Amino acid sequence: MTSLPVLSPAPPPPCHVAIIMDGNGRWANRHGLRRSAGHKQGAEAVKTAIEYAADAGIEYLTLFGFSSENWNRPETEITDLMGLLRFYLSHEIEFLRERRIRFRMIGDRSRLAPDIIRLVDRAEAETAAMHRLNLIIALSYGGRAEIVLAARRLAEKARDGVLDPAAIDENSIAEHLLTRDVPDPDLLIRTSGEQRISNFLLWQTAYSELVFLDTLWPDFSRRDFDTALTEYRGRERRYGAVVA
After folding, report:
1. Which residues pair with 106 in a beta bridge?
2. What residues are annotated to the active site?
3. Residue range 16-142+184-233, CATH number
4. Measured in Å, how far apart are the chain's first and last C-alpha atoms?
5. How far apart are alpha carbons 194 and 37 in whole angstroms?
6. What is the value of pTM for the model shown?
7. What does the pLDDT look like over 210-240, one tens digit per residue?
8. 210-214: long-range contacts (C-beta < 8 A, 24 or more apart)?
């Protein structure tokens, strides 16, 4: 009797995937539409990415929604983006609850309108007990500003005599970042063909695998996510060591 071949188990998914969602404006231009239409379609791609990550068993998904530098964009575009953010924070919490997804925000809340901060607080509170996927949205976020904030907090502790400056190490800095209770990303994906990290999770992505896709973010699909994970699984992660 011929024995059946033993199938190797599927490799585990990365624990944490971060995505720079790039290309909304170019998508809109390509389709002869206003930039706001690209942002709206991009918001639908966010839902696709969330559902894929949850189905794939990814534990953390961090999306770069709005950078600290994006405040320099035209006021009309910022207004459209904030309006879209209000809409989804108001209407899509049920989408997260149904899929048992926890919502969190990282970034400078002081620059957001008070009603948006209230919506963010509500979304975080209403999904705090969810555990299928941790969804982290970076809003008004900059990696350098985050590191500066961590350094300032450490300096204040040293000034107050709570911390010996000689004891400050990499762990100390990591513990004062906005992501202090989140594992570093295993995989960073950027769409639209651009190949840079644009001040996103500068400390946390020191050893992340980087995958750059030509797809514009509004066209991002489950197949694109598959492509990125396939490339990730083919990488050999060394963390600076030499593998024999």
Report:
1. 138
2. 22, 70
3. 3.40.1180.10
4. 40
5. 21
6. 0.92
7. 999 999 999 999 999 999 999 999 988 776 6
8. 211/187, 213/189
